[in-house]
Amino acid sequence: MAHGLHRVAEEIRQNFSSDVDRLISNVKKIVVKAALRMKNFKEIAPSLPLPPEPITTRWGMWLSAVQYYCENYEDIKKIGSTFDSSDASSIKIVQQLFSSSLLRDLAYIKSNYGGMAKSISNLEAIGLELHESLAIVKNVEREIREARGTVAVSIKDKLTKVLDGNCGFSTICRIGDILSSGKAILNEDDPTLECSDLTLFKYAPITSSDFERSFSRFKTVLSDNRRSFLFENLRMHVVIYCNAAMNGTGILQT
User: Fold this and answer.
1) How far, in whole angstroms, is CA 53 from its chain's centroid?
2) pTM higher than 0.85, yes or no?
3) Region class of 116: left (phi > 0), else alpha (psi between -120 and 50), else beta
């Protein structure tokens, strides 16, 4: 479901690709990619974190960047005005982008869809009970369906397609209701499950993020530069990555 919510987030991004998306990409170019401007940024706003570098394939990062620019709009505008527009075309673009329409779009996205990025991150956590994971998804669904405006229509349609396209989601929702409230029942079309089988779903994950992360973690184990790995070193290498995954960070602990 985390991947499904990311697809909805991509629909939001496409609807605001004219100004908001250009702002995020161009500020990254003029600040994060230039050491001198990065230094000027820190001197002008020492307490302000550097602009995020969202990667579109990482779930929810673009929405987190929108929240950053909405909360620090005036500071970023002030910093951008100090740069010389003749140094780079991206500086000129950023200076021209700051307007009432940009402020309006940033505020709209944050107020209506600002919680999605955190919800996606919460879904990726390890050890969530099924009813907790489903509550996160239902909260996002409620947030999206309560949004108003012309743009909200296409985003609601995208959410409906994502949920309807996941044929097992309704079944797992009924199982979650059985385990949390004991009131729901399975439909005839649902898989036949024994009572003991249902209890095994208490910690059932509704996202494949752990499995997808494992692909990137373990693909280096048998890379071209590790053909001479001894079995003992290979075992320690795998244990290190497993411990990192169990810590819930995906970062190697030293």
Assistant:
1) 13
2) no
3) alpha
